[in-house]
Amino acid sequence: MKKVIALAALISASAFAGAVSAQTYNSDMPATSPVDVSVVNVTNDPSAGSGSRLPITLTNPGPELIEDARAQLESDPALVDALAMKNVQLANVVHIQTAANGGKIVYVR
């Protein structure tokens, strides 16, 4: 009897959790907002004063790195909009990285 009650409680809790997550998700929200985008200028290394420097692959990016950034921009119109709101010229983007919080770090020259 205790197992049946525990199973019923588990099913009830999982159904409730699914309903809550369905209510909070809004597919109309953009995947990337200007708040979720950090822009780092690689020509003026912001970390130089602290003793750490950006990797050479960012300060002197190769064509493959830039092509990958262009491909990400083409596949993410919300990111392009967020960069436009921050007055970032897309031709200056050299690398895009996904942050731990899901936001984007965009490296520009």
Brief sketch in words of this structure:
With 109 residues, the chain is of the alpha+beta class. 45% of the residues lie in helices and 15% in strands.
Largest sheet: 3 strands, mixed
What is the overall number of helices?
Answer: 4
* Estimated share of beta-strand residues: 5-15%
Structural class: alpha+beta
What is the end-to-end distance? Answer: 67 Å
Tell me the number of strands. Answer: 3
Tell me the strand order in the biggest sheet.
1-3-2
Taken from the alpha-carbon principal axes, the silhouette is: globular
Helix content: 40-55%
Average pLDDT across residues? 76
Uncertain runs: 15-30
Order of helices and strands: HEHHHEE
Cα gyration radius (Å): 21 Å
Keywords: Signal
Describe the structure in your own words.
This protein is an alpha+beta fold. The chain has a domain at 34-108. It is 45% helix and 15% strand. The chain contains 4 helices and 3 strands. A hairpin with a 5-residue loop joins β2 (93-98) and β3. Residues 15-30 have low confidence and may be disordered.
Q: Key features?
A:
about 110 residues, alpha+beta, three-stranded mixed sheet, 3 strands, about 45% helix, globular
Blueprint of the fold:
Blueprint: H1 2-24, E1 37-41, H2 56-59, H3 63-75, H4 77-85, E2 93-98, E3 104-108
Parallel strand pairs: 1-3
Antiparallel strand pairs: 2-3
